[in-house]
UniProtKB/TrEMBL annotation, chains A, B:
Gene3D superfamilies: Vaccinia Virus protein VP39. One of its GO terms (biological process) is methylation. InterPro entries: Methyltransf_11 (IPR013216), SAM-dependent_MTases_sf (IPR029063). Residues 46-140 form the Methyltransferase type domain. This is Class I SAM-dependent methyltransferase. It comes from Enterococcus hulanensis. One of its GO terms (molecular function) is methyltransferase activity. CDD domains: AdoMet_MTases. Keywords: Methyltransferase, S-adenosyl-L-methionine, Transferase.
Length: 242, 242
């Protein structure tokens, strides 16, 4: 599997984004995600698609017993090992749809904006269910199915070049989409909301919360952020293993 | 509250639709909804926005102890009382956001495509939670938040007049929307997915299923039905009172 984050130019552009520069506080959805996180104290935590490791460090800072961060991109992990290191954080280079752990290895699994890169969510949900202890928590954010459906991930514009609305298309045709992001073609996988949730429910999860994060008040003056009131860009799901 | 279904012309047009003529089997989402319905045997059932009473009769036919169908439209109830009558079905003319029942009066509450006419879902969810017994079931369909967001409920067309995509706009601005349907202006209320689910969760419901019904195979040759693969038009939620 080829990883876009190991592409030099893409990586360079990504590293300039607010969410890369400022860490968690640079991400518009962080406040919403944070409110859904469980108490990390004494817990064994797995972060799938950990990137720079901001969430790993957050878990460690909040008392996690141990944290494993998995990412396919060696470039991302290099930064993580420098910037967000801590005695009980282990960074592991692996694809999140191929990595394996023993049953009941974790109390909490988190994943931030990584799962839409995975073709087979059913397989991943089944794996996570095995890795978690009973009553273990899964909290993940993904690009919203409405945001991934059409594929371009761009607005529709009127003749004057102003945003007209956001286009939805091919919603029930799931699968690969190629969007242009930070100057590169990025492959993602579109799934319906139904598919996300059914794969959790059939693998023994209870749905605890489903939240579409809104742009936070204090970021509305950032260019483009006000427009994010017009479409749901992300989905955060909190589920508990039965 | 003014009811569009008591408008002569609108009612006439509505009564010509497949879902009005053929009953449950004329509705594209019926198969999906049916699969989510619990066993009605011996249960006390409430149908909010019962319309012609097709679902009331279905519940009665499947062994419900009693069924109460509530609808604001006297015209709809007239048809219900003629077409879908049964000894233990009671039809009640009332607004579903004003009707009241005693606590724990029902085992099952159903509602088909009615709740998007209600301004305050929080109040309704709280009421339903009171009317249901512990472990009571709520199953309802609504127009999908993606379908209600922009307001026109119409596709975007290209210059040749062909469907280009479905427009989403103003997603996080909830409230009144006016769409043109069957020749009349119809007022509905847009709410995000988050708002629907949070109002259930905070009122003591567990989310059991969330399904976006796809057009059924055997209806894909009906004009326009194939296009319904391109957008999610409805949302079905199954929840259980704790």
């Amino acid at each position: 599997m080829n990883n876009i984050y190991d592409n030099e130019e893409f990586f360079e552009s990504y590293s300039q984004m607010a969410r890369s520069q400022k860490g968690l506080d640079g991400a518009g959805e962080w406040q919403t995600l944070k409110d859904l996180l469980p108490d990390f104290k004494g817990k064994r935590v797995l972060d799938l698609g950990c990137g720079y490791g901001w969430h790993c460090l957050y878990a460690a800072d909040h008392g996690a017993a141990s944290v494993v961060g998995v990412d396919l991109s060696e470039k991302m992990l290099e930064v993580a090992r420098k910037k967000n290191t801590f005695s009980n954080i282990t960074y592991l280079q692996a694809s999140i749809d191929e990595v394996t752990f023993e049953a009941e290895s974790f109390d909490i699994v988190i994943s931030s904006l990584a799962i839409h890169y995975i073709a087979d969510f059913g397989k991943l949900a089944k794996n996570i269910a095995q890795w978690l202890v009973p009553e273990g928590q899964l909290i993940f954010s993904v690009e919203h199915p409405i945001f991934t459906a059409e594929g371009s991930q761009d607005w529709s514009y009127d003749e004057a070049g102003k945003i007209a609305h956001f286009p939805v298309d091919n919603y029930f045709y799931e699968g690969k989409r190629t969007a242009h992001f930070l100057g590169s073609d990025v492959t993602k996988y579109h799934r319906t909301l139904t598919t996300y949730l059914d794969n959790l429910l059939t693998n023994g999860f209870q749905i605890k919360r489903i939240v579409e994060p809104m742009p936070p008040e204090n970021m509305l003056d950032i260019p483009g952020m006000q427009d994010e009131m017009r479409r749901p860009m992300m989905l955060i799901v909190k589920a508990e293993k039965e």
